Amino acid sequence: MTVTRITERPLGTRSVPLLTDPDVGHYPEFSDFLVATFDLADKQLDAPGLLDVDGHVYELIFIGRSGRPFPAGVEIAALVPGLEPLDSDQTDRDLWAILEWLVAGVGEPWSVEALRTTGRIYRVIPADS
Predict the structure, then answer these.
(1) DSSP category for residue 72
(2) At the N or C end, where does the chain have fewer CB atoms within 10 A?
(3) pLDDT-derived band of residue 102, with 50, 70 and 90 as boundaries?
């Protein structure tokens, strides 16, 4: 699966919340990666960050909290066309691809292989990943 940052939100979509990390700064390297990738140092109040995962679009909503570096948290939401149902199996695969993209972008000491090992241990890797 390919994860690509995009800048245009598709028209006619609705946002369906999927996953929230209320403390993305717990490991500063993750927050630093998101700040660099989505230009958040200068654009804290701009529109959410957008990711395309093989034709499916997701928005990253960055959360600020008083007294905390931005972003303090992040919510990932699927952008679903109109009133179409959410394909939960596809969404699970796409979320896993986003997690792998995030870990690969952060780099050492984090690794995609370690993420996959953890996923296998907890049996959370979606089928076809």
Answers:
(1) S
(2) N
(3) very high
- Whole-model pTM: value is 0.91
CB 115 within 8 A of CB 100: yes
What residues contact residue 102 under an 8 Å CB cut-off, 6+ apart?
A: 30, 33
The contacts of residue 100 (CB under 8 Å, 6+ apart) are: 3, 112, 115, 116
Phi then psi dihedrals of residue 77, to 5 deg: -130, 145
pLDDT over threshold 90, residue 127: no
Q: For residue 39, give both structure tokens.
A: 């230009």
- Domain residue ranges in the chain: 3-122
